[in-house]
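To fix ideas, we close by showing one paired sequence and structure record:
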Amino acid sequence: MPMIDNIVPVEFVENNSLKHKLLPLILTVVVFAVDQITKMLVVLNIEPYTVGASFFGDVLRIIHVYNTGVAFSMGNGLPDMFRSILFAVVPLIALVLVMVVYFRSSGFSFFQRWMIAGIVGGGLGNIFDRFFRNEGVIDFIDVKFYGLFGLERWPTFNIADASVLICGILLIISFLVTMVHENQKEKGAGNDE
């Protein structure tokens, strides 16, 4: 069994009832709410394009910027209508498709469902901004990167971005662990013959 089975009882992990598919969506709601609350606090307390607070010198700064593009501000220069469709409507359709697969599939582990829920919550947070904030997505976490990869500072991000990234990485790792486990199981069954 995947590593998660050591933490969560097997019967709970393998039960794919509607109740167990709905439970991880708590994370979707929490990520969305925390993302929107933190963005609201930034808007209310920090002037746009200024630094509101610095921690550990200037290693971590809370700033107020708008991103009309996608990750790392890619696409900022595209025409407004094209950007709206490409960066708001297409991701919304993608999230709807993800949720259809989420509910129809019984192949996801309990852990994988929680990670998908975190990705969806982050996606919804940024899509909400794209539909309801003319300025674009609010980014506010600014981290010093010490020149790594030619970047003095990591591109500014928000809670939604962090959730998508962290949950996405953990989801990929869980798929890899599951694949390795399945391969080991198949090799073990082949040796028994």
Summary: The CA atoms of residues 82 and 109 lie 37 Å apart. The mean pLDDT is 84. The radius of gyration is 20 Å. The chain has six helices and three strands.
